[in-house]
Amino acid sequence: MVKVLAVLYKGGQHAKDEPRMYGCLENELGIREWLESQGHTYVTTDSKEGPDSVLDREIVDAEIVVTTPFHPGYITRERIEKAKNLKLLVTAGVGSDHIDLTAANEQNITVAEVTGSNVTSVAEHVVMTILALVRNFVPAHEQIVNNEWDVAAAAKNSFDLEGKVIATIGSGRIGQRVLKRLVAFEPKELLYYDYQPLSPELEKELHARRVESLEELVSQADVVTVNCPLHESTHGLVNKDLLAKFKKGAWLVNTARGAICVKEDIAAAVKSGQLRGYGGDVWFPQPAPANHPWRDMRNSYGGGNAMTPHISGTSIDAQVRYAQGTKNIIETYLKGTKDYRPQDLIVIDGHYATRAYGADKTTK
Ligand code: NAI
Fold it and tell me: Does ligand 1 lie within 6 Å of residue 122's CB atom?
């Protein structure tokens, strides 16, 4: 019999209000009955930080650990090394950077995620955030709730998306969906940077032009959106050196991972006007501490901040899909057939099964 451990965020009353909120602690991905009816053990918790956490205590004899990027149980080398029975790590969602993938590879642990489960959800959030920043929505809305009315104050930093150059770092499932949705806004140009180029047919369909370097991308773009995974070569990718190469007053949207951007450098760029605004939903660490500079950063006009908690990939529609996908992955493991959906595999049998986590990360 197998012990499954899941680290999930607390839902409280909200879990009762919306039973399809499968990704929270109370609703447990909807798999308790299914697991227990087969005699397996299922432990769920939201306690994940430090040596006294339930995660630390329960991982020692767990065979399967499930966690979500929204409330990531950081599966460090140290935790992997003391988890003697661990065979499968499942990300209920997309993005497995909270796992030390090198250590998982070394210990021959399979890492799988529910690829595609929330990519449309994120792409919609990206487009919304771009519009919120470019149109200066947040300060205008704040006027209304504060019982104010000052058209000029909000209008002086509000622009049209039409005619702008918009660029994505990463053109995988989310990047492509962002580009596809942006075509309707009639931008001047859509650019992308990725070491895995799109086919000429797809470039044509998405009206997108590939550039050869990040510098080339950021120096031309009015809006930059980050849609690549977090790995060794994207950690701190957007730092003060790269920000200095951006067009002055560009907008930056990051729903990929917080640690791709250097938090202090972003806050300084928003303050100085090098960036007109920054938005997204991903932070490091998560939950974000009270003193995280992205909570209260503002541009000189009092706007330029379109941050939310990590919600883009956890819409109710997405939760239904990633809960089902998590169940499918566990079911495949329990059958012992190893016939996972190939696109769900990040590492298996001591090798990377995807190139998304770095140009050099290839399958066997
Ligand atoms: P994907 O694997 O389909 O595409 C990722 C693309 O990024 C690949 O084409 C890869 O070649 C490219 N890439 C990797 N390193 C790069 C680099 N250094 N420069 C340029 N491109 C690079 O992944 P998908 O589904 O598009 O998701 C991307 C990321 O978005 C996830 O890894 C995750 O971190 C994040 N995400 C965030 C969510 C949220 O709720 N905020 C939900 C889902 C995903």
Answer: yes
